Amino acid sequence: MEPEYRLVPFAEVDWDDLRFDIPSFVPDAPLEDSVRRYGCLTPPWVLEKEGPAYTVVDGFKRLRFLRDAAQAPGVHCLVYPKGSDFADMALRRVELRCTEVMQNTAEKAVLVRLVGEVEPGGEDLARLLRLMAIPRQPLVLADWIRLGGSRERLLSAAAEGTICPKAALRLASWSLEESDAALDALVPLRCSASIQTEILDRAVEIAAVRESSRLNVLTSEGVRVILDHADLNNREKTEALRRHLFGLLYPRLREREERFSREIAEVALPSGMRLVPPPSFEGERWKIELSFSTEAELDALLDASRDLLASGRLRTLRDRGTSFGEKPVAPDSGRRKP
Amino acid sequence: MEREVADGWLAGSLRRNLPDAAVRIVERVPDNAPHDPDLLEVVTYRGRFMRECPGTRHYFCCGYRILHFGLQCSLGCTYCILQAYLNNPNLRLFGNTEAMFAELERELDEHPDVLHRIGTGEFTDSLLLDPYTGLSRRLVPFFAGRGNAVLEIKSKTDFIGNLLELEPGGHTIVGWSMNSARVRTREESRTAPLSNRLRAARTCSDAGYYLAFHFDPMIPHANWREGYGATLERIFAAVDPSRVVYVSLGAFRFMPDLKRTIALRHPKSTIQYGEFIRGLDEKMRYYRDIRVELYTFMVERLRRWDPDLCVYLCMEGGDVWEDAFGFTPDARGGLPAMLDRAVHDRMGVAP
């Protein structure tokens, strides 16, 4: 039962026969626009039945758009002959739908680059970007075009999804060695998109602050030890790497956090009580969290809180947490002169 | 120029002082125009000319008020917040000068018992266009006659020509933004060199103006102590401390979106990278101990120069004040009161 490619008049299509219809439940303006511009780039499928009449198998929307446009009496379709097996037709239809190409990041980038080269700044490029939900801003476009021209390793990682689009776009502007080092780190970790971009951002910032290179950061001893660690799983490696990079970028803050942890341990707060400094020790708003099950437990924790306050240990902890070095002696500056 | 202000005082000054500039009269200068470095827009301003300093409740604010006479700056400092004002990327002046002075006068008259510290350098550099606008020729005499107000002009230029022909009457402070030589060279390369600023400060002081210095933004860098210390020494050598009303200190801080803007517009700059944490006002700022270290160093040096000098922190919290100074503004009646006292003590101005 081989199909035949021939003209099918719209008047002979049975528009009420929806046995093969797989509705998408959303309007498809880009497809309508495409059909108006280029017609059907691949032929719709129809099944011949008594009549002359045709049942639509695939291409419902495109046929309707063309019919409504009323620019031609019909369209060339793949016509399956009368008596074709309905079940077989239905399976083919599903097969086709399931294997329709959804562009991955790499394909998108290659498409953008192709159109960008053929018609830079043209309306076709703008339309393509709209279809792929890529902002038309010149810098964003430049990133995508650059990614589209990248080497296979980066494009493969982007296509497979082991590198998120944002990370792939960023790496496209890095040198080969830097990009390889980043892929060596990120691909095996299989971490989330937000963590991938965080790691790359941190590498950029650490390199800038230390007047080093991104390559040096990503291939440093500390990073290699974490990535090669035999006893850590991917999640643990990811967390260790994040902590390591945080420490490189925020050495003073990390040192303060570690010191605070030591001081809290020395104070030995009762279980169920937690002293929380302001985020990044910024500001003066501290918190004490009390966890309890019974009123008696709460009572004991409140007593412990009062003891902590009375003993002066809380003040010491807070002072240590927010002071830098020795406090200066208050000057006369700003006081009214006698 | 918008037609409505094309025959105004400011437009006249500009035509006189820029005789070769092409002038185009339009009904309305659009917002969101593309950036054009050769363009100066003169528009009718329909908002309030008098504004409060955009401080937030989380940190101590100096209570300075802004006389809003224009927008944007062409000095191109890498750290400048004005880069984020994408709706108005071009130099813009408000041509309805009489309306501005009327509002200013009304404001001062309505609150005669208050000391008004008013500055013009928040949304643009106070002196950048002064050679062409001559605005200082109207502002300085205006404030000279007001018992309850002082004007602060803030600049990174040395365009003081107009100032030297005026009689400030003890009511105008000329403030310069200062920094280490390295920051000046790398991050504000189109501004006047520090030596020019200090020469201008000395000249202004000799001409009867009071002075202020603003170390803002302070940016820690390799050998920053030597860098900032050297700038302080140059100030100490250049001017008499009794003419300095106050010195402010502020570590670099920025809205998060500015980070990308700096990276795009100033790819060689790395000031947006470092131990920045999100502050209580949502701006990115250095981790507090770094700020305290910067301030402590400066305060100690400034105290040695003049123990009575009013030194203050721009937008910092009580804990940082406590660590840098040993007291908080609240203990001195609040930061605005501290600055009012400095104006009273140094300039003898009080309502």
Give a brief rundown of this model:
By secondary structure, chain A is α+β, with helices and mostly antiparallel strands. In chain A, 55% of the residues lie in helices and 9% in strands. Chain A has helices spanning 29-38, 60-69, 86-98, 105-118, 123-131, 138-148, 152-160, 165-171, 176-189, 193-209, 214-218, 221-227, 234-249, 251-267, 295-311, 313-322; strands spanning 4-9, 45-49, 53-58, 74-80, 273-276, 287-290.
Query: What's the story with the biggest beta sheet of chain B?
Result: 8 strands, mixed
Q: Between the first and last Cα atoms of chain A, what is the distance in angstroms?
A: 109 Å
How would a crystallographer describe the biggest sheet of chain A? 4 strands, mixed
Radius of gyration of chain B: 20 Å
How many strands in all of chain B? Answer: 14
Mean pLDDT of chain A: 88
Structural class of the helices, strands and pairings of chain B? alpha/beta
Helical percentage of chain B: 25-40%
Structural class of chain A: alpha+beta
Strand residues, percent of chain B: 15-25%
Oligomer: heterodimer
Which regions of chain A have little confidence, pLDDT < 50, spanning 5+ residues?
322-326, 331-338
H/E series of chain B, N to C?
Answer: HEEEEEHEHHEEHHEHEEHEEHEHH
Explain the overall architecture.
Chain A has 338 residues and is of the alpha+beta class. Chain A has helices at 29-38, 60-69, 86-98, 105-118, 123-131, 138-148, 152-160, 165-171, 176-189, 193-209, 214-218, 221-227, 234-249, 251-267, 295-311, 313-322, and strands at 4-9, 45-49, 53-58, 74-80, 273-276, 287-290. Helices cover 55% and strands 9% of the residues of chain A. The termini of chain A are far apart. Chain B is of the alpha/beta class and 351 residues long. Helices cover 34% and strands 18% of the residues of chain B. Chain B contains eleven helices and 14 strands. Chain B has helices at residues 9-17, 97-110, 130-133, 136-144, 181-187, 194-206, 224-238, 258-265, 288-305, 318-325, 335-347; strands at residues 40-43, 50-52, 65-67, 70-71, 91-94, 116-119, 149-155, 172-177, 210-218, 244-251, 253-254, 276-278, 284-286, 310-313. In chain B, strands 2-3-6-7-8-9-10-14 form an eight-stranded mixed sheet. Chain B has a three-stranded mixed sheet with strand order 1-5-4, with no helix packed on it. A three-stranded antiparallel sheet of chain B has the order 11-13-12. In chain B, helix 6 packs parallel to helix 7 (224-238), helix 7 (224-238) packs parallel to helix 9 (288-305) and helix 9 packs across helix 10. Chain A binds chain B through residues 139, 204-205, 208-209, 249-253, 256, 279-284, 322-325, 327-337, and chain B through 58, 264, 270, 273-275, 277-280, 285, 287-290, 292-293, 296, 299-300, 303, 307-312, 317-319, 322-327, 329, 331-332, 338, 341-342, 344-345.
